[in-house]
Structures are given as C-alpha cells and as structure tokens.
Amino acid sequence: MKNLLFRAYSFRLSLLLAGMLFGCQRLDDAPPPQPLMSREQLVSVLADLHMLEARVENSRLSPDSARALYLQQQKDVFWRREVTDSLFQQSYRYYASHGKDLDDIYGIVLDTLAARQAKLGNPK
C-alpha cells in the first residue's frame, strides 16, 4: 500500500509539472465541457484505478498480461462507477488544464487511499 501512495503522489507531481508547462496555453474563461464528471466522482474513479494498478503490479504477471488484465478491470471500474472511458478522459483533461483543480483532486485521492488503507488495518 505504501507503493500505491508513492505512485499516486509521483503521478500527481508529474501531472502538476505538466500542467505548469502548458499553463500558459490554457483558457481560464473556457466553459467546462458537457457532460463533465464531478470532482467527487473523479476522485472515486481515480482512487479505484490507482488501487487496481497496485493490485495488477503485485500480481507478478508478464507486462502484456498485466496490461490486458488492467484494461479489462479498468472497464469494470468504469462500469461500476457508471462512467464511460470518453467521459473520464474528457473530464480528466478538463481538470488537468486547470492545474489547481487537479492538484486539489489528487490531494483528496491520496486522503481516500490512506483512509482505505487504514480501514484495511494496514500500517503505512
């Protein structure tokens, strides 16, 4: 689980840096796309996807098998959360273009993952 939190943090940091690089090009006044996932919905999906990624990485499958398993189970996550792949991608791109929004979202994702870890009774 430590690895999961580290990966989520490093992913968040890389997205923040990418947002800073492209921040000059964003349009703050652009209306959000419709439909758009709520922040809460995006947090839930991202937390599920990061947990899925950790489980797949710990499965010790070959890279091709691990990727196939991840993609299949990713579809299950989207189905369970009633989200399409295109809605997720569109929403993620929107929040990523607003760097502070994505930073706040990933802060909540990290808190969510830590709470799930605590609920499972695993020390950090």
3D architecture notes:
There is one protein chain. The chain is mainly alpha-helical. It has one domain (2-24, 36-120). Helix content is 74%, strand content 0%. It contains 5 helices and no strands. It has helices spanning 2-22, 39-57, 63-80, 85-96, 99-120. α1 packs across α2 and α2 (39-57) packs antiparallel against α3 (63-80). The relative contact order is 0.21.
Short précis:
The chain has 124 residues and is mainly alpha-helical. The chain is built from five helices and no strands.
Per-chain topology:
Layout: H1 2-22, H2 39-57, H3 63-80, H4 85-96, H5 99-120
* Count of individual beta strands: 0
Overall pLDDT score: 82
Global morphology: globular
Q: Whole-Å distance between the termini?
A: 7 Å
The tally of helices reads 5
Helix and strand run = HHHHH
Rg estimate, integer Å: 15 Å
pLDDT below 50 for ≥5 consecutive residues: which ranges? none
Biggest sheet record: none
Strand portion: under 5%
Label the structural class. mainly alpha
Helix content: over 70%
Number of domains: 1
Features:
single chain; 124 residues; mainly alpha; 5 helices; 0% strand
